[in-house]
Amino acid sequence: APGSRTSLSWTLGAVGSYVQNGDPNREFAFTQLSLSTRYLSFYVLEEGDHYGADKQALGEAPFSLTSTYLSGSIRPARAIQFTGSYDDRRQVRLYRDYANPETSFDDSYREGYGGGIALFGHRVRATGDYHHSSGGTSGSNESVTATAGIDRLTSLRLSLLGRGTWISSTTDQATGSTTVDGYLYSLRLGVDPLEPLHFDVDAGIRKDATLNAGSSQPESKWYGVSVDLSVARAWFLSGQAVREEGDNNTSSTQFYGSLSWRF
Q1: 25 FRET partner, CA 20 to 30 A, in 87, 165, 210, 234?
Q2: 0.85 exceeded by pTM
Q3: HEC states along the chain?
Q4: Could you give the CA distance from residue 39 to residue 147 in angstroms, rounded to a whole number?
Q5: What is the overall mean pLDDT for the chain?
Q6: Which percentage of the chain shows pLDDT scores above 70?
Q7: DSSP β-ladder status, 180-194 and 197-210
Q8: What are phi and psi of 103, to 5 degrees?
Q9: CA–centroid distance for 76 within its chain
Q10: What pLDDT, in 10s, does the model give residues 15-63?
Q11: Shortest CA distance to 107 belongs to which of 38, 206, 203, 30?
């Protein structure tokens, strides 16, 4: 009901994606349930894929439950929140508007379970999370992530968010190594110079070090900027650019833009 502190929603749907000659790229059905109260929130997602004759010939069943995602949080007081999650979503082909080493890192180490704690104050917040992953391209690993941020400072509504992730793995499929330690650091600065205009600047560094092989994985650095503009509450313009550079003298620049109309 309007004004209620409790909300409940359930969604059921199906998606079909096809290549130009009509062959299926992916066909799947999904259901999701979310519940939110003053002290508790819960979300569950389940996906099931249908496979055609070509994929069945490769060993897939006609129908397979491919993705389960659960997340929940308990907030016993205004200043503290406990979180937990379980994720076994497979690495299916997805479309991202914006990708950098941070999003690639999170996708690689996504499958598994974890828990954490979040602390809130007046315009400040801090989180600490533990995650165990045992699937996907990253193998088995454990990671700890800490974040700290401030929001809506001064008339420019300045926001700043920093993140550090430290990871220890037991399997690296790319190198055959059995012990990999690495890290990821990122920083994001946001500002609203005008009410309908928002700028974000972000930068970061990611590196995995292969200990028992005595060599290091390439280090990735990136920096980017994004702009969001709302016009007359109906049109929404968004633009993003990111530059990525690696240890092996490789680099790439990505641009993305969109224009949306709400009605």
Answers
A1: 87
A2: no
A3: CCCCCCEEEEEEEEEEEECCCCCEEEEEEEEEEEEECCCEEEEEEEEEEECCHHHHCCCCCCEEEEEEEEEEEEEEECCEEEEEEEECCCCCCCCCCCCCHHHHHHHHCCCEEEEEEEEECCCEEEEEEEEEECCHHHCCEEEEEEEEEEEEECCCCEEEEEEEEEEEECCCCCCCCCCEEEEEEEEEEEEEEECCEEEEEEEEEEEEEECCCCEECCCEEEEEEEEEEEECCCEEEEEEEEEEEECCCCEEEEEEEEEEECC
A4: 22
A5: 86
A6: 86
A7: antiparallel
A8: -65, -35
A9: 26
A10: 998 888 877 888 999 999 999 998 999 999 999 999 888 888 888 889 9
A11: 206
8 Å CB contact between 44 and 32: yes
Task: Look up residue 150 and give its two tokens.
Answer: 């401030």
Q: Which residue has tokens 């130009």?
A: 20
- End-to-end C-alpha distance for the chain, whole angstroms: 23
Q: What is the mean pLDDT of residues 167-193?
A: 77
Lookup: tokens for 129: 């999370």
Tokens standing for residue 79: 């200043």
